[in-house]
Amino acid sequence: MLDMPRELAHELKLWKLKCPPSHQDLVFTNLGGGFIHRKNAGNIFDAIVARAEIRRLTFHKLRHTFASLLLSKRKDITEVSRLLGHWDCAITLEVYSHFVPRKTTTMQDLASSILS
Question: Strand, coil or helix: what is 41?
Fold first, then answer.
């Protein structure tokens, strides 16, 4: 199951109501009602980005941005790892550790607890 904002879930439900029926009950289909191959999805996305006249994006770049923004906002590494589909947080840390804020108050907290 994928967590998503209510607004997005609502828009997807509206879109689904407009979609032609498919055997797999898909939200996005090819013209025959089947799965969209990853390469074709990338081509469709490339066309949308070009039409929007923005710098080229890829699904990989969007995924990286998603993870980087969450980690830079101090979101829990285990939650980010789960959202990315990593089976281990170590994978997430290996790839995205440069986005995890380094500033800590560990020494200050320790000193305060000892002195109080």
Answer: helix
Residue pair 35/24 in contact by the 8 Å Cβ criterion: yes
pTM, two decimal places: 0.64
95 within 8 A of 70, measured Cβ to Cβ: no
The 10s digit of each residue's pLDDT in 15-45 is: 888 887 778 888 888 888 888 998 999 999 9
| Residue 24 DSSP one-character state | T
Q: Is the dihedral of CA 82, 2, 29, 44 positive or negative?
A: negative
Q: Is the dihedral of CA 54, 2, 60, 46 positive or negative?
A: negative
* Helix-strand-coil split of the chain, %, nearest 5: 60, 0, 40
What does the DSSP 8-state code read for residue 4? -
* Both structure tokens of 27: 């939200």
What's the CA angle centered on 108, arms 106 and 110, to 5 degrees? Answer: 70
